[in-house]
């Protein structure tokens, strides 16, 4: 690749961690699989800890990857919390700040698992807080630390179908899911109707996937983000708070998913 590698910001966890002689130390971290997949695709990964003071860091980035992790707080989409929901308010606040500015500036964005759910909430959508109550099984998170695997299908002609051409199974580790995508288009489903991919075709690159492509041998969505970031960098420059954004921020919308999905009302 000629010139500077596209810089991809990866949102990070803050969780108790242990290493060497240290135990249960609050740490900013992200699974290395995210970094490895960005690097393998030709990008430069930068880890972004939660910080909702401003989104100025986006001026240094060419793309944003919203990583997986704890549940999005239900107050973000106007629902009371389910007892099984475990949220991280500081992370929600920091990522919401970054995402709003990234969308306004038309910066390429990929949401993975929790990241896809945060995208849906940003576009005015709703989440199922405990998916087994909806689909009647634990196949999307079979056991702690164990990924599931299931069939997936995509809308012909969509970005998801283009990126995932030839793929008909994905991995899975989540107990929440998108119930209403808000202003996003639903472009992928699992065999049980759970929404697996959403996107905004009006923007340069906004894609959400419910599975974990960073853990796949061929992490295509991450590679697609890096390509989009390189292309975007050659055409525009992101300025946060200084110049008029290329596109308006998304307008929240309440409604039904644009494709068939689980029909149970979110808990």
TrEMBL record:
InterPro entries: Class_I_gatase-like, Peptidase_C26, PuuD-like. Pfam families: Peptidase_C26. Keywords: Glutamine amidotransferase. It comes from Micromonospora echinospora (Micromonospora purpurea). PANTHER family: GLUTAMINE AMIDOTRANSFERASE PB2B2.05-RELATED. Residues 71-93, 234-267 are annotated as: Disordered. This is Glutamine amidotransferase. It comes from the Bacteria. Gene3D superfamilies: 3.40.50.880. Residues 83-93 have a biased composition (Basic and acidic residues).
